[in-house]
Amino acid sequence: MSAAPDPRRWWVLVTVSLAQFMVALDGTVVNVMAPQVQRELGLSTTGLQWVANLYVLLFGGLLLLGGRLADQLGRRRMFLAGIVLFTLGSVLAGTADGSGQLLAARALQGVAAAAVSPAVLSILVTSFPDPGERAKAFGVWGTVLGIGASVGAILGGAIVEIGWRWAFYLNVPVGVALVAGALLLVGAHRPEPGSRPPLDGAGALTATLGLTSLVYGIVSTTDHGWTHPLTLGAFAAAAVLLPLFARIELSSAAPLVDPRLLRRRSVLAGGLGELLTGGLSLPCFFLLPLYMQDVLGYSPLRTGLAYIPTCLAMMVVAPVLPKLLERTGPRAAYVGGTALLVVMLVVLVSVGTHASYWTTLLPITALLGVGLVGCLITTPVVGTAEATEADAGTVSALLNVSSQIGGALGLAVAVTAVQHRTTALAGRGVAADEALTGGLHLGAATLFGWMALSLLLGFTAFRGRPAAAPVAEAEEKEPVRV
């Protein structure tokens, strides 16, 4: 018989959603305020790019280890440790007097995010065992995640007016509140010593180094290109380390990632959905500010405010979506969200050097919000449908890894297309704003491939209704189709 649901679970949802909001916001807030940071600290263009890249690199590289540690050491412990480290990293970033301290602070934040994100998802999975309630919880979580990325642009624009350091200082009181909330609300989860298998050291090492190499190879393409020795070396290392990790897991008595998880249809479908959604969302949050500021001449604050329709659309649609999932299953929500994102891309690839906010940017940002909600809420509902108390952290980490790799790869491909097309047009004598617009058209066009795969996934793999999580003893049973 399953345990009674925690009566404090809705307050737990508020706490962990706020933590996810902070993590998502800090992933995008630096994009808008980057020029001010560069001027004040004297960063090179490459150094400025690594202010964002270090966060993504360590976040993505350490997620599997963070998820496994959440299962082994306790979800609340990992959540608290991550929040404390994230807050410390924010203090270091806000007080940075040079590029070295800022880069170290962003690295610390990336490590902390890799602890927080899988802990957040696993806390939600175990706090909401009922499928209907879990869908509602993920509705809130997905909305907060999307709004965090959107508000990162808004807050970044506003912060530019008063000083970029406040973007990091604001995390400090939030971090203190989150620590207090977790101690008061989140139940301590400590696996009994006799039931806790030893950590798979070889698997942890090869997974972390392999994922870090893969993410490094992807993000370094914006600095060096796809054929640079550093890029090729990183991809080669990943090509050796990740298969070695898989081989270790198959023979390990206590694997970092139980191979049986990857035989669950729900985990595979949810992971692919996260990868494809990340591959679209991160490039959009990069390309749109570039277009608004460098082509249309928007100020950073005006650029941030242009994302208000994205936030409003998410807040309007999110409360309705769990009911749709309960009635029709995940396919309608995911395919519908993807279709709206395709419409958004059609508008984006047709923008010119002069565009009205009301007829062009408003539809783009509103469609982005509605479409992302459909995908961001549905994929974790599907991916965690069969997660158990024993593996919730690992399953959550797998979903997060997919999202991070998809986002990094989608951004790398889009940026490469933008750079090549813009350079080619400028070389033919095309005006700078027209050349950049042409580059943005090609960058956005690369995202249609992600959307085609996303539609295929939705029609073929997302079916049925969310299933109740199985008990740990039922691990060997045929997985419920989703």
Characterization of this structure:
By secondary structure, this protein is mostly helical. It folds into two domains: 9-186 and 256-474, Growth Hormone, Chain: A; 200-255. The protein has helices at 9-41, 45-73, 75-94, 99-127, 131-162, 166-169, 171-185, 201-219, 221-224, 229-251, 265-294, 300-305, 308-317, 321-328, 330-348, 357-383, 392-427, 432-445, 447-461. Helix 2 (45-73) packs antiparallel against helix 17 and helix 5 (131-162) packs antiparallel against helix 13. It is globular and about 65 Å long. Residues 466-482 have low confidence and may be disordered. Residues 12-469 form the Major facilitator superfamily (MFS) profile domain. It comes from Kitasatospora terrestris. The chain crosses the membrane at residues 12-34, 46-66, 78-96, 108-126, 138-160, 166-187, 199-219, 225-246, 267-292, 304-321, 333-355, 361-385, 397-418, 438-459. It holds the Pfam family MFS_1. It is found in: Cell membrane.
Compile the SSE list and pairings:
Elements: H1 9-41, H2 45-73, H3 75-94, H4 99-127, H5 131-162, H6 166-169, H7 171-185, H8 201-219, H9 221-224, H10 229-251, H11 265-294, H12 300-305, H13 308-317, H14 321-328, H15 330-348, H16 357-383, H17 392-427, H18 432-445, H19 447-461
Helix pairs in contact: 1-2, 1-4, 1-5, 1-7, 2-3, 2-4, 2-8, 2-17, 3-4, 3-7, 4-17, 5-13, 5-14, 5-16, 8-10, 8-17, 11-16, 11-17, 11-18, 11-19, 13-16, 14-15, 15-16, 15-19, 17-18
